[in-house]
């Protein structure tokens, strides 16, 4: 599963998804993190530059280009969560701490 997580420079889950400065794209398997690549996306600066629709499209294009299947984040706005759901992505909120561990946790089935 390919998971995208907002990250800080020290490898923790960043506090925001839609305003992330940097994200990691990880391929996770039952055995752990198979690959990990970080990108400086600048969504923190771009968020307010040209409207919500364009910003959502920018994030959607990034996710599609990187074949992301799930997003793990601390929080995100309801419109963003709705958009990701319409894209068929799994959204895991409440992520914190080590970003690699958050990516692995995104593979877990949701609690019942």
What does this structure look like?
The chain is of the alpha/beta class. The protein has one domain: Nucleotidyltransferase, domain 5 (2-Layer Sandwich). Helices cover 30% and strands 27% of the residues. The chain has four helices and five strands, in the order βββααβαβα. It has a five-stranded mixed β-sheet, with helices on both faces. It starts with a strand and ends in a 7-residue tail after the last helix.
Entry summary:
The chain is an alpha/beta fold.
SSE inventory with pairings:
Blueprint: E1 2-6, E2 22-29, E3 32-40, H1 43-46, H2 52-65, E4 70-73, H3 78-86, E5 90-93, H4 99-105
Helix/strand class: alpha/beta
Strand content: 25-35%
Q: How many β-strand stretches? A: 5
Mass-distribution shape = globular
Based on CA atoms alone, the radius of gyration comes out at 13 Å
Number of domains: 1
Low-pLDDT segments, ≥5 res: none
Ends distance: 21 Å
User: In percent, how helical is the residue content?
Assistant: 25-40%
Helix segment count? 4
Taken in chain order, the helices and strands follow as: EEEHHEHEH
Arithmetic mean of pLDDT: 89
Task: Based on the model shown, name its key terms.
112 residues; alpha/beta; Nucleotidyltransferase, domain 5; 4 helices
């Amino acid at each position: 599963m390919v998971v995208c997580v907002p990250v800080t420079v020290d490898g923790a889950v960043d506090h925001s998804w839609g305003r992330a400065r940097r994200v990691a794209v990880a391929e996770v398997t039952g055995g752990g993190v198979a690959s990990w690549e970080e990108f400086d996306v600048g969504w923190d600066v771009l968020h307010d530059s040209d409207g919500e629709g364009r910003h959502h499209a920018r994030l959607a294009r990034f996710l599609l280009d990187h074949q992301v299947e799930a997003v793990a984040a601390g929080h995100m706005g309801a419109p963003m969560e709705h958009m990701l759901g319409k894209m068929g992505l799994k959204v895991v909120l409440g992520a914190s701490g080590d970003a690699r561990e958050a990516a692995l946790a995104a593979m877990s089935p949701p609690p019942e």
